[in-house]
Design a protein that fits this description.
There is one protein chain. With 676 residues, the chain is of the alpha/beta class. 32% of the residues lie in helices and 22% in strands. It is built from 18 helices and 27 strands. The strands form 6 sheets. Strands 8-9-7-10-11-6-12 form a 7-stranded parallel sheet, with helices on both faces. Strands 13-23-22-14-21-20 form a 6-stranded parallel sheet, sandwiched between helices. A 5-stranded antiparallel sheet has the order 2-1-4-3-5. A hairpin with a 4-residue loop joins strand 16 and strand 17. The radius of gyration is 27 Å and the shape is globular. Bound molecules: adenosine-5'-diphosphate (ADP) and zinc ion (2 copies). Residues 380, 382-383, 385, 420, 422-423, 425 line the site of one zinc ion. One zinc ion binds at residues 389, 391-392, 407, 409-410, 412.
């Protein structure tokens, strides 16, 4: 006998109240997740329409109390069914409950009711001076891409494309033309863009073409506003949505194209259950709608480029800057040599000279410190003690203006100790490489210089990031200092110098993507220089001047980087050559976390043929919020075998739930973005 969980009122708020029905034999092969069905409902058994969320082979409810599904409705409006089907795919692929997957795809109505104001577009386009948004004529390279796409599209070919275009090559104009074509055919477009890369210039360009038929979603958008956009999408009042990964779940009736800009960005991977990757879900969504997919980047992810070379994706290239600007000249500076020459400041001699020249000639500079995988920790120079959070097992970071040390995970904050808690020495110091220290250094070097600083501390307020960028665009400062936040997508024609202070900090991040991320950040950073008329210069300071990520980034040579990187991935057995999954257990009771991990790893060893199991071991961050964490990793040639093992583990956990054997909380993560 087959059973179905059916939901009557399908909304974000109501998904935890599905009802079980019997699937009659004659409907068995027609029913699937997402199917719209008629069911007898309530006391009077009146017929109601509902959606099947899930099918199952057994039910704990006594048979006499169950009713049968009456019929299947073949409705014209398949939008809701598709979203449920997508939620089911996400649940199956990544491991979560159906309820969590549904909450992900369905917008919340409740928030909409409680907060029903809204008058302007909310994207701030009206407050910004008109930048460089004149209607441009596509150049030959852009035209070639658009016309090839259009030819295929008109022939009914649905494909996955990788648009590999250097920074400033004009990818946005290509997207706009492609979207126009698809929208003209009466279909809709979803364009994902990492929030950090969504600039006013981009928004304005889209508004120029699509007016109020484009909606822009960002995280400052309240849940209620998201709901309103979803309603507009459902009713075909908008054709285009631009937003972060959740924009994938916009309920358009007929999606014709999904674009994922800056496809290499880590932000496309969800860090909450279900830990889905927007690139993968985009492919599934496109498949369901008969849409094409375009991934775009100046530094494609190793995964996507691998697929393009294998022929899974069609590769398009844009090799020239659209404005005709030349690529910047890049210089690598060896910090070890600087130290030997007696320079103890964080600015090498070359960077000092060029900064002075740039500012004196009225141009602008950006200074970038790559802090990924590094937090301004405090340690003792006498005994080596690092001061850590007692709850999370990570180093605390110094907040100089508050005179405190704080934890980035749980917010724990203490007064900065004057002496080492371990040996009593006075020499407790921070590794001086934060943006505040750089700002101080610049001011010392160039008295009177106007600086702006942008990092996690200065941008906690929603609008402060935009304010800083706007002030810099209006040349209210000579130097912008920041973390990786400043390197994404921004187009400042006045910037002629980009300095990277310690390029190799991110190489030590301790995961297999460290080389890729370093290459990507350096290339994107270099791409910020010389976007205007004056050619740009880039100075990369590093302790590892021979590392291939740094050498190829300096040469702006993606293929050179890729060739070395893929050899490493192949030899070490990492994605995209192999598939990898992390299984993380956590519990207040350390033993429970450990034993659950140990048991599950054992299960995988016994079941998984041709699968490599690593661990379990204590996670890199062994404790978060007093929850102990253990992790093990699985490697395989095929994704399917990992998904199969995930199913086995889920089944085991479901069986144990409710018995006296308690298991820890378990998280599955395919292709983890960061080490646990
Ligand atoms: P990318 O996204 O590839 O980094 P953009 O789409 O932001 O590049 O384009 C970079 C700059 O080039 C923008 O200022 C844009 O207006 C301009 N641009 C794009 N296409 C053309 C073109 N065909 N002719 C002139 N300028 C162009
Ligand atoms: Zn000490
Ligand atoms: Zn903490």
């Amino acid at each position: 006998m087959r059973y179905a969980n059916v939901i009557v009122d399908i909304s974000h708020e109501a998904v935890d109240r599905p009802f079980t029905y019997i699937v009659p034999d004659e409907l068995a092969d027609k029913c699937r997740p997402g199917s719209r069905v008629m069911i007898p409902f309530g006391r009077g058994n009146s017929e109601k329409a509902g959606y099947i969320l899930e099918l199952k082979d057994h039910s704990d409810i006594p048979l006499v109390r169950l009713k049968e599904i009456s019929s299947i409705v073949l409705s014209q409006d398949a939008t809701q069914s598709r979203l449920i089907e997508l939620a089911y795919y996400i649940k199956e692929q990544y491991g979560s409950t159906m309820i969590d997957a549904l909450k992900l795809v369905l917008p919340s109505k409740k928030a909409y009711r409680s907060k029903k104001t809204l008058t302007d577009t909310g994207d701030g386009t009206d407050t910004v001076t008109d930048g460089n948004v004149d209607t441009v004529t596509l150049n030959d390279d852009q035209e070639a891409v658009v016309s090839d796409f259009v030819t295929e599209y008109d022939k009914g070919v649905r494909n996955t494309y990788l648009l590999f275009g250097i920074t400033g090559s004009g990818k946005t104009e290509v997207y706009i033309e492609i979207i126009r074509h698809v929208v003209d055919m009466g279909r809709q477009a979803i364009m994902l863009i990492p929030e950090i890369a969504l600039t006013y210039q981009t928004v304005k360009r889209f508004r120029r073409y699509f007016g109020d038929r484009v909606a822009i979603m960002n995280s400052t958008l309240a849940a209620g506003e998201r709901y309103m956009y979803c309603e507009k999408a459902r009713n075909r009042e908008i054709d285009v949505i631009i937003g972060p990964r959740s924009a994938l779940f916009t309920p358009f009736p007929d999606v014709g194209i999904v674009i994922v800009d800056e496809e290499h960005e880590g932000a496309y991977k969800s860090e909450n259950m279900p830990r889905y990757h927007a690139r993968e879900v985009a492919l599934k969504l496109a498949d369901m709608h008969g849409a094409s997919v375009m991934f775009g980047s100046a530094t494609p992810s190793v995964e996507s480029y691998y697929h393009a070379l294998k022929g899974d994706y069609k590769l398009y290239r844009l090799d020239k800057r659209a404005t005709g600007a030349v690529l910047p000249e890049v210089k690598i500076v060896d910090l070890r040599a600087e130290l030997r020459a007696g320079n103890r400041t964080m600015f090498g001699y070359a960077l000092q000279d060029q900064l002075r020249e740039t500012v004196e000639s009225g141009q602008q500079a950006m200074l970038f410190i790559n802090r990924r995988g590094y937090a301004g920790f405090v340690s003792c120079r006498s005994c080596g003690e690092v001061i850590k959070c007692p709850h999370c097992d990570v180093s605390l970071s110094e907040h100089r203006n508050r005179g405190t040390l704080a934890c980035h995970y749980c917010g724990y904050e203490v007064e900065r100790p004057k002496v080492c808690p371990n040996c009593g020495s006075k020499y407790v110091m921070s590794f001086k490489a934060g943006t505040e220290q750089i700002e101080e250094g610049v001011k010392k070097l160039l008295p009177g210089v106007r600086t702006l600083r942008m990092d996690g501390d200065t941008t906690t307020r929603k609008d402060s990031r935009e304010k800083i960028l706007k002030a810099f665009a209006e040349h209210k400062a000579d130097v912008l200092i920041g973390t990786q936040m400043i390197v994404k997508g921004h187009d400042f024609p006045g910037v002629t110098l980009v300095g990277v202070l310690a390029a190799d900090i991110s190489l030590g991040a301790g995961d297999y993507r460290a080389g890729e991320r370093t290459f990507e950040l350096l290339t994107q950073a270099a791409g910020r220089a010389g976007r205007g008329e004056v050619p740009g210069r880039v100075v990369i300071q590093t302790y590892q001047p021979d590392h291939y990520s740094i050498v190829h980034a300096a040469a702006q040579d993606y293929e050179g980087f890729y060739e070395e990187e893929i050899v490493y991935r192949d030899i070490a057995g990492y994605p995209p050559v192999k598939e990898i999954m992390a299984v993380v257990t956590s519990d207040k009771d350390e033993n429970a976390a450990y034993l659950t991990a140990k048991y599950l790893a054992g299960l995988c060893r016994a079941k998984g043929e041709g699968i490599q199991v690593m661990g379990p071991g204590k996670a890199g961050i062994g404790k978060i919020n007093d929850q102990h964490r253990y992790v093990f990793y699985l490697k395989s040639d095929a994704r399917d075998s990992l998904t199969g093992l995930k199913d086995d583990m889920e089944e085991y956990l479901a069986k144990k739930a409710g018995t006296e054997i308690t298991t820890a909380r378990v998280v599955f993560d395919f292709g983890p973005m960061n080490p646990f």
